[in-house]
Design brief:
Layout: H1 14-22, H2 35-45, E1 66-70, H3 71-77, E2 92-95, E3 105-108, E4 111-112, E5 115-117, E6 120-121, E7 136-143, H4 147-150, E8 157-163, E9 171-179, E10 184-194, E11 201-213, E12 220-233, E13 238-252, E14 281-298, E15 301-317, E16 334-336, E17 340-360, E18 363-384, E19 388-391, E20 406-428, E21 434-453, E22 456-478, E23 481-492, E24 507-520, E25 525-542, E26 554-571, E27 577-592, E28 606-615, E29 624-633, E30 636-637, E31 642-643, E32 646-656, E33 661-668, E34 683-684, E35 687-688, E36 698-706
Parallel strand pairs: 5-8
Antiparallel strand pairs: 1-7, 2-3, 3-4, 5-6, 7-8, 9-10, 9-36, 10-11, 11-12, 12-13, 13-14, 14-15, 15-17, 16-19, 17-18, 18-20, 20-21, 21-22, 22-23, 23-24, 24-25, 25-26, 26-27, 27-28, 28-29, 29-32, 30-31, 32-33, 33-36, 34-35
Helix pairs in contact: 1-2
Length: 707
């Protein structure tokens, strides 16, 4: 394979980005790129799965920060929820899902980071969604506004889940996992390859069944997942990709408990404490259908049409956490609210994109134009409830049983929204060392929210539009180093309940970033570093004055200023030795409070990680890898309390028995650090309600068999 053909036919920018940034070859000369990596890029690039996916731009040309966590890194970290490996990245912080539904959420640069699936926004209520780890090829984390690339999806950053696609060569993989709490699970991935020996039809099926156990015996989670995906190459010019992703979670969630007024964890509470109801339960079913058609009219003119439909059903009862609704400092009056609830959501997405490549100034120039339609429905219903308690802190471990509330669930919140978009992007190359990436997007949002509370019905409508733009440039200053600068705007729809029944307006933002990326010392070190500054307007934040038992209201900040730095690097001092270092600093400051009493979001100013791994290269122990590291989250200032910083240590051991079988043993949270994880949750009076602790020390044994 000749290197001059490496990027031929790459309509998505993403494939090149993803593989190159994930591997040590990230900013090497094209001559050093391995042939098998190029083949993987080309297969992936046929369809638009990645974040910046319409224009073929080499990785070092990108004028913004992008981190990649691929399947190898997910296996190396081996977290119970593999996506939690993102917590090792700079300025990324995990928020706990206290319903325990198999998913989890994240903040980026201080604010919620929406999670996409194959570059499309998905439903993600309480951590549900069609992104089971058995479906995942890699995660891509784009920092800062991403409105042109992916629609109005967040100004702090977005996380894209790139799912597995069929490839020509058949293969299969089975992963078995168990831990000391009794959890067991099996993941499988069968790539059938070409079904007709001509490459016309390719098929791949992934899935999993897991039975999770926890330190608290009453907590449990069972997950079933299945995703078939097929590619139909109808001709040399036309291809179709179709998939159905199904996930189901059955849970007894951990619920939660209130903290002391100073933020301390009460004596006698640890990860083995069960603060919920013995008969609490939740069931989630999520189905996502995707279809994508790609047609090349000419070698330099390509049309892509995509569509998806997602349905999520969430039923749960008696999952309330404990609250100190009286505000007693001694925690002698905790209460809960047994209830039954139902949440249904639907999402319909359609878009069409036309990509064109021309050659002038001696370089390829790229442009894409497109339209998109995004329709959402979210219907949440509750039945009546009473107050159960008070419970003494001394009796927190006593078995409790909820009555499920009274009557059938009745309407509580109904959200409807339609978003119509038109966009255009271009990558211009005046010289072979300068790339200018520009985009413009128009969004028209119509949003209706009906909520029922205190016996009244409120209909709040919001209709707005915005023209946003992105402009960035990347300059090659030496053979292996590029510097970049970018400006990007965002328009982000927001849902929520305000206590005054006013609509929650869409958020707008302007973001600036300067940085550099590249490699040094003959690719011994690869790095990317950036400095950012973003002004965000009409940011919806959780109301710090919510009262126990009431709805979770939001308030709106007039202006929020976010600034910081981040640095990521991979170092390869010698064969078999890898050092990964990440460091991020984010400062979030509410500069205009708007109409409400505002406190800034809870986010650690300092985040970072350091991991070292060494694989023995020869001798009797060849193939044995030894590693470990630290994840650090700095102090977090909340609206009522301040959480201490935390450093979590992990140890990782692996051994390649033969070409097909690898076994690993991992100890996560080695020092058994006790810390509160869900600082994104609502606050109640003077305390933080429904606090949930981070995972305790966990020993994991994994067998990975490649057939």
């Amino acid at each position: 394979m000749k290197t001059e053909n490496n990027y031929k036919g790459l309509t998505p920018l993403a494939a090149a980005i993803s593989l190159a940034l994930a591997a040590p070859i990230a900013f090497a000369d094209e001559e050093t790129v391995k042939e098998e990596d190029i083949e993987k890029i080309i297969v992936t690039s046929q369809f638009q799965q990645s974040l910046i996916n319409r224009i073929p731009v080499k990785p070092k040309e990108l004028p913004f920060t992008l981190n990649i966590v691929d399947s190898d890194l997910l296996d190396a970290r081996n977290f119970a929820r593999p996506i939690e490996a993102l917590t090792t990245l700079p300025n990324i912080f995990r928020t706990e899902d206290r319903r325990g539904t198999g998913g989890t959420g994240f903040l980026s640069r201080g604010f919620e980071a929406p999670i996409l699936v194959d570059n499309r926004v998905q439903n993600n209520f309480r951590g549900t969604g069609a992104r089971d780890s058995s479906f995942v090829e890699r995660y891509e984390v784009l920092k800062g506004p991403a409105s042109i690339a992916s629609g109005p999806v967040g100004a702090g950053g977005i996380i894209n889940t790139v799912t597995k696609s069929p490839t020509e060569n058949s293969a299969a993989n089975v992963k078995l996992r168990a831990d000391q709490f009794g959890s067991t699970g099996v993941d499988f991935d069968v790539n059938a390859g070409e079904l007709d020996n001509s490459g016309t039809v390719l098929l791949r099926v992934s899935g999993a069944y897991r039975d999770f156990k926890f330190d608290a015996d009453e907590v449990s989670r069972k997950t079933t997942a299945l995703r078939p995906v097929a590619i139909f190459n109808l001709s040399d010019a036309t291809s179709v990709k179709a998939s159905i992703a199904y996930t189901k979670h059955e849970v007894t969630p951990p619920a939660g408990f209130p903290l002391m007024e100073n933020g301390d964890i009460p004596d006698g509470i640890d990860t083995g404490t069960f603060a919920g109801y013995q008969n609490s339960e939740g069931e989630v079913e999520d189905t996502l259908v995707n279809l994508e058609v790609s047609h090349e009219f000419l070698d330099n003119l390509k049309l892509t049409v995509r569509g998806s439909k997602q349905q999520t059903d969430f039923d749960y009862k008696n999952t309330s956490g404990l609250y100190n609704y009286r505000g007693d400092a001694g925690l002698e009056a905790m209460a809960a609210y047994p209830q039954t609830a139902v949440a249904d959501s639907e999402a319909t997405f359609l878009d069409a994109q036309l990509a064109y490549t021309a050659n002038f100034w001696g370089q390829d120039q790229n442009i894409v134009i497109g339209v998109a339609h995004d329709e959402r429905l979210f219907d949440r219903r509750f039945n009546g409830y009473g107050v159960d308690g008070p419970f003494s802190i001394a009796d927190i471990d006593q078995p409790r049983y909820g009555d499920g509330g009274t009557g059938e669930p009745e309407p509580f919140t109904l959200n409807n929204s339609e978003l119509e978009s038109i966009f255009a992007e271009t990558a211009l190359r005046p010289t072979d060392k300068l790339t200018i990436v520009a985009g413009i997007r128009y969004d028209q949002l119509v949003q209706d929210t009906t909520n029922w509370r205190r016996g009244n019905e409120y209909l709040v409508s919001f209709d707005d539009s915005e023209l946003t733009m992105r402009l960035g440039a990347s300059l090659e200053t030496s053979e292996n180093i590029n510097v970049y600068a970018s400006f990007a705007q965002a328009f982000v729809p927001q849902f929520g309940l305000r206590s005054d029944s006013k609509p929650v307006p869409a958020e707008t933002s302007d973001g600036f970033e300067l940085g550099a990326k590249g490699s040094a010392f003959d690719n011994m070190i690869t790095f990317q570093a950036g400095v950012f500054h973003t002004l965000r307007n009409n940011v919806a934040l959780q109301d710090p004055n919510n009262t126990a038992g009431g709805p979770a209201f939001v308030v709106t900040a007039g202006e929020v200023k976010v600034k910081g730095v981040e640095f990521s690097s991979d170092i390869y001092p010698t064969d078999g030795l890898n050092i990964t270092f990440n460091l991020g600093y984010t400062n979030v400051d509410v500069t205009e409070a708007g109409d409400d009493e505002i406190t800034k979001p809870v986010f650690p100013e300092l985040t970072g990680s350091l991991y070292v791994n060494y694989e023995i290269q020869s001798g009797a122990l060849e193939g044995l890898s030894l590693g470990g590291g630290l994840r650090h989250m700095g102090e977090r200032d909340g609206p009522k309390v301040t959480w201490d910083s935390q450093s979590i240590a992990d140890l990782n051991f692996g051994y390649q028995i033969n070409e097909e079988i690898e076994v690993s043993f991992d100890i996560l949270n080695l020092t058994d650090e006790l810390y509160v994880e869900n600082t994104f949750q609502n606050t109640v009076n003077k305390l933080t309600g429904s606090a949930v602790l981070g995972a305790p020390r966990t020993a994991v044994l994994t067998l990975n068999w490649k057939i």
